[in-house]
Amino acid sequence: MVRPDGGPCRVLVVDDEASLSELLSMALRYEGCEVRSAGDGAGAVRAAREFRPDVVVLDIMLPDMDGLTVLGRLRREIPQVPVLFLTAKDSLEDRIAGLTAGGDDYVTKPFSLEEVVARLRGLVRRSGAAQAARGGSVLAVGDLRLDEDSHEVVRGTREIHLTATEFELLRYLMRNPRRVLSKAQILDRVWSYDFGGQANVVELYISYLRRKLESGLGMPPMIHTRRGAGYLIKPAEPAEPAEPAESAKTSE
Question: Where is the OmpR/PhoB-type domain (predicted)?
Answer without folding.
Answer: 136-235
